Amino acid sequence: MEKTKWYFINSGPCSPAYNMALDEALLDWHSEGLIPPVVRFYEWNPATLSIGYFQSVDKEIDMDAIKKLGLGFVRRPTGGRGVLHEHELTYSVIVTESYPDMPATVTEAYRVISEGLLLGFQNLGLDAYFSVPDTEQKRDDLKKPKSAVCFDSPSWYELVVEGRKVAGSAQTRQKGVILQHGAILLDLDEDKLIQTFKFSSDELRERVKASLSKKAVAINKISKNPITIDECKVAFKKGFEDALEIELVEYKLTEEQEMYVQELEAKRYANDEWNFRK
């Protein structure tokens, strides 16, 4: 039986605003039936702190530190907490809510889409598994995260190796379409990440920093051999194809589509009104 064909876009390093604009544009086009579902891989230039749709810049983010470190900054259209995009492969999946066998609930849809990540990590030789809170306390922790840092704790069905989080994902649903995107860590600069957030005390900052290495880990910290971004792309592309039983077909945007992305970028993600609105 012939597999369903999805588009595959390998964007390479792009600006923070362009990355978020293209993810939203793909959602728009898919909702209008102009393109099939999409798996996209991308990177960030410059390294960037992205924050969740609901986060407060004033309360949680140290913009002086971001400028000093030469980082980009953008607010995502998805929820979740702050992520430092530096040594990583970022993925996005765009698919309709009505896609065959796609669960209606956010949590279960996470599980189905993230099966591609699970197989990707296993393709790299890592013993990855899904995080599922097994006690009332852990479930409460998910509802009330201790800090604004994404990798401070695993959420439902996020990927874990040796008890530590190796990928952080976020999801939104608009116009009948699911957009899930997330960070696959190759390396993690914990000092730099912690510097970008505000804390109520130095003691809390040190506590979160100390706990981060126990809660999050990058691929190259646990892999027997260093893994490159290109090796990641091969492993995770196959992971998504096998998990979702699809064929990924390479796609390049048309000139008209590029113009649409650039307009969306200027209107929203490169706009202070969007990025600093909370």
UniProtKB/TrEMBL annotation:
Listed GO MF terms: ligase activity; lipoyl(octanoyl) transferase activity
Query: What residues does the record give for site: Lowers pKa of active site Cys?
Result: 165
Taxonomically, the superkingdom here is Bacteria
Q: Give the matching Gene3D superfamilies.
A: Bira Bifunctional Protein, Domain 2
Answer whether the UniProt record assigns the keyword Cell division to this protein: no
UniProt-annotated catalytic positions = 150
Q: Which Pfam families match?
A: LplA-B_cat (PF21948)
Task: Give start and end of each BPL/LPL catalytic domain.
Answer: 33-248
Has UniProt tagged this entry with the keyword Glycoprotein? no
A GO biological process of this protein is: lipoate biosynthetic process
Pathway given in the UniProt record: Protein modification; protein lipoylation via endogenous pathway; protein N(6)-(lipoyl)lysine from octanoyl-[acyl-carrier-protein]
The EC designation for this entry is: 2.3.1.181
What keywords is this UniProt entry annotated with?
A: Acyltransferase, Ligase, Transferase
Top EC class per UniProt?
Answer: transferase
Spell out the reaction equation it catalyses.
octanoyl-[ACP] + L-lysyl-[protein] = N(6)-octanoyl-L-lysyl-[protein] + holo-[ACP] + H(+)
Function in brief: Catalyzes the transfer of endogenously produced octanoic acid from octanoyl-acyl-carrier-protein onto the lipoyl domain of GcvH, an intermediate carrier during protein lipoylation.
> Miscellaneous notes for this chain?
In the reaction, the free carboxyl group of octanoic acid is attached via an amide linkage to the epsilon-amino group of a specific lysine residue of lipoyl domains of lipoate-dependent enzymes. The reaction proceeds via an octanoyl-thioester enzyme intermediate.
Q: How does it assemble?
A: Monomer.
Identify its protein family: Belongs to the octanoyltransferase LipM family.
What is the protein name stated in its UniProt record?
A: Octanoyltransferase LipM
Give the organism, scientific name.
Psychrobacillus lasiicapitis
